[in-house]
Amino acid sequence: MKFKLSKKVFAHIDCDSFFVACEVFRNPSLATKHVCVGRDVTIAASYSAKAKWVKVWVPFWQAKKILWNSFVALDPDMKLYGQLSKKFMWFLRMHTQNVEVFSIDEAFVELTWIPESLDMNLEEYVVYLQKKILQEIWIPVSFWVSTTRLRAKIFSKVHKPYGYFIGMDNQSVYDQFQEMPVSDIPFVWFWYQQRLAPHIKTIYDFSRESMFYFKRLIGKNATWLWFELNGVNSLSFASHWDKKSLVKTRSFNHEMSSDPRFIWSKLLLNVERLFEEMALAEFEIRHIRLYLKTKEKERFGISHYFEDYTCDRKEIYSALQILFKKLYKPWVVYRSTWVGSHDLQKYTPKQLSIFSKANEKHETNKKLEKIFLDIHKKYGNESIHVGI
User: Strands 71-74, 34-39: parallel, antiparallel or unpaired by DSSP?
Assistant: First the structure.
């Protein structure tokens, strides 16, 4: 069976430790420190902290124990991250084509014929873009280039941070695949990997096996992965921001546990990914739902409804803390967490009102309320009347 091999040039561009890079952009003095971003648990760490084995999901108490006085903990500022992300995506749209936003800090782009039109080769153009992004946006990025999007995505394990890898010919691609485990293929989940064992251990093994074998074993989606790995352009990662729901899940695999700190740390990763998407798409939510799945695959859920649509991180975080305390049972062993919302809308600035409960925390309304109280104390409760 013959297939038409892609002659296009795709790049996967990923910001290096994006949340930390944004914090360094705001405060350059952090550049030489071990920075961890998160709340109770690490969701992003500087590369100097990662070198000391402080990675994603490591609790702050443990990170502090490892890094001691050099430990710098920062709450995530999704508004800042969203603004810099938009600036980054806008840059890509100006200098590449067919930009497909994959997350708040990464995207797929097409570079076909662009370097040639500027009298550059592919490597020169990639280096040029890297330097220009760092110069204009102050965010370091890594590039991986190949003939399909999935190949480019897989190479994100190579030459990071602030590196690049170009694999345009099949020989260099397959040579790299022989050194990479099958777990590096996106969307090949843990239970799929178990079914692929024992003879499919590397990406090269996956790409050399029959397409029909994977179709029977996993399903139709596996055939698309197989095509992409073998140089046939068949996938798109374009984001669609007209979603009706946001859902983030996380399985523990072999780490099933009843430890509340461990389960909460996993749940927090879901929550932060939820905030990433909300910040990038400018969503706000009215409803949040939390599920915990047990070892026996029973699922228990609980919801919270806010008084108004919100994107306030502290408000959502506090609601989830309450939900978790209500739902968690110490004698139950859990295997996964799930958090999401089915009531979304695009963010719209709220008109301030002294009568709205949603604005009680606003500083302006606090001042107004104090003035009202002072007047009432001096002239009586009937001194001010509301006109309709």
Answer: parallel
Residue 238 maps to a domain: no
pLDDT for residue 380 is more than 70 = no
Task: Read off the pLDDT of residues 136-192 as tens digits, 9 standing for 90 and up.
Answer: 999 999 999 999 999 999 999 888 899 999 999 999 999 999 999 998 988 787 777
Per the structure, how many domains does the chain have?
4
Does residue 87 form part of some domain? no
Asked whether residue 303 falls in the same domain as residue 335, the answer is yes
How far apart, in whole angstroms, are the C-alpha atoms of residue 22 and residue 18?
6
The Cα–Cα gap between 129 and 45 comes to 24
Please, which residues bridge with residue 344 across strands? 285
Helix/strand/coil for 257? strand
Do 106 and 157 belong to one domain? yes
Domain assignment present for residue 240? The answer is no
Do 33 and 129 fall within a single domain? no
Q: How confident is the model at residue 356 (pLDDT cuts 50, 70, 90)?
A: very low
Q: Are residues 376 and 273 in the same domain?
A: no
Domain shared by 101 and 45, yes or no: no
> Rounded to an integer, what distance in angstroms lies between the CA atom of residue 68 and that of residue 276?
29
Query: Are 325 and 361 part of one and the same domain?
Result: no
Same-domain pairing of 99 and 224: yes
pTM: 0.74
At 38-73, the pLDDT tens digits run 888 898 999 999 999 898 888 898 999 999 888 999
Encoded amino acid at 346, one letter: K
Paired strand residues for 100: 108
The two tokens of residue 376 are 């009432």
Quote the CA–CA distance of 122 and 53 in Å, as a whole number. Answer: 35
DSSP class of residue 31 equals: G
For the stretch 200-241, pLDDT in tens is 999 999 999 888 888 777 777 778 889 999 999 988 776 544
Given the structure tokens 């104090």, which residue do they identify?
370
Contact status, residue 36 vs residue 54, Cβ threshold 8 Å? yes
Q: Which domain holds residue 196?
A: 93-229
